[in-house]
């Protein structure tokens, strides 16, 4: 049981690292857009000078885009913290089968999103993280 908790925690740390790296790149892009900026010349200026059609109160499409990246980072970090908390502080909660399955399914959703919409680093990171979590969960309670 103790070994399984640490395996789950390692998977949670992978997600924490991914979320923290994403957050850091988003902060950097607020001052000097490079990481998440479009590759096409002139498009960044277009995004900064237009807004979404249905929201007249937004400053720019770029601001919305950066806000999305922040909320995404926070979501991944929150997921990682929940996994770490359950694994290291409250492993008794993991005796609930629904909680264990929910944690793995939520992590698997990040794998699918990364595969369909993002790029190789978040895909491999999420795949490794959720695989390690799933292995630890399987070891906890047969």
């Amino acid at each position: 049981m103790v070994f399984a908790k640490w395996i789950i925690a390692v998977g949670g740390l992978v997600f924490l690292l991914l979320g923290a790296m994403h957050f850091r790149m988003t902060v950097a892009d607020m001052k000097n857009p490079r990481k998440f900026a479009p590759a096409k010349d002139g498009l960044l200026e277009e995004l900064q000078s237009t807004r979404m059609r249905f929201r007249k109160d937004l400053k720019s499409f770029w601001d919305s885009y950066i806000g999305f990246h922040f909320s995404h980072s926070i979501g991944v970090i929150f997921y990682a913290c929940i996994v770490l908390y359950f694994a290291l502080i409250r492993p008794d909660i993991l005796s609930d089968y629904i909680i264990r399955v929910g944690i793995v399914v939520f992590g698997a959703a990040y794998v699918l999103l990364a595969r369909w919409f993002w790029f190789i680093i978040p895909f491999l990171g999420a795949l490794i993280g959720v695989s390690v979590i799933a292995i630890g969960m399987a070891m906890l309670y047969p």
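The radius of gyration is 18 Å. Helices lie at 2-31, 43-49, 61-89, 97-117, 120-140.
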